[in-house]
Amino acid sequence: MNVIVIGGGAAGFFAALSCKKHHPESSVILLEKSDKLLAKVKVSGGGRCNVTHACFENSRLAKFYPRGGKKLKKSFYQFSTRDTVEWFERRGVKLKTEEDNRMFPVTNNSQTIIDCLMGEANKLGVKIQKGISISKIEKKENGFSLIAGNKEIHADKIIIASGGSPKMEGFNWLKELGHTIVPPVPSLFTFNMPNESIKKLMGVVATPVSVKIKGTTLTSNGALLITHWGMSGPAILKLSAWGARELHAMNYKFEILVNWLGDKSETEARNFMETEIKTIGKRQIGNKNPFQLPNRLWLFFLEKNEIDAETTWNQLAKKSLNKIINTLVNDCYKAEGKTTFKEEFVTCGGVSLDEASFETMESKVCPGIYFAGEVLDIDAVTGGFNFQAAWTTGFIAGKLGRSSPS
Fold this sequence. Notes:
This protein is of the alpha+beta class. The protein has 13 helices and 20 strands. The strands form 5 sheets. It has a 7-stranded antiparallel β-sheet with strand order 17-16-13-14-15-12-18.
């Protein structure tokens, strides 16, 4: 049997390895259109590769996927986070869990993951060809014909792991096969705030904060990073993922409300502050913030509310106290635009989830074709979840419908 895997990313590699493992007699050829293999693996996690997330309960894991979670829940029972950890460790790559449950190789180097995948491909006999872009797939009586430029390639089975595309045209070749494409829009992006002075605090991290998109039900919490263009960090990235379609519809012009105290209400903040003032009343406001916020951020809030940093707490007027409390729990900023990560871009959209069986990853529209990774309308929040979906769907697709255990 001749199997062609389209896409040299995480999902494509894992699908090819799984296929060769489950069907050792088959010829498995992996095609990558660029000259780079595993490009996202290389840059993920700041070059450390956020392999997966230490969430070992499948039903909970599925909740980190704005699109595809319900379908993936079943798939995780075939290949889970625990299976990912064991797969790499059996091949000499130990993973470590960080405070936020993201998992990285102990080497802190994405090349470790790349070397492992490449080494396994070499060991199993997966053939890899770079610089081959498939423009068309034709169904034949005895399989499929793949068109790449002037070249025609025969396949008995095809695994498509070509990743997301920022434009609808990137899915035309799959649409021609009869698949429904959910229009792609960016997911996982940072908020640009060209007219907000908070940008001067770039590099400051506040955690945990709660962020809400004004006029919607979209909320998120976690760490927030202030950048030279606006706001980023897990709290923002999670919000961008869950709100991908709504924010696209708003043309990325919206207001966010930030509660810098996380889940504290205005009443709780006021009670806490009034209690604290009894103890710190003689201290200067600029030198003592009761909520242990980053100092630069605290001074920014005082400046924003025209409060003299040298004023002592027991001299603070009630009006000024109200203003600072409101800023802490209900701070408003205007976002105008987004910034996506070039090599790490994630889209929501792709092949409709209704057109793939998540027990086998086979196309319901075109049997003999299997899907893996972001080519499907699957995406997750940041933290290793997108890679876990790639490992899971790649592993299942590579079985080509075989129900035997791994």
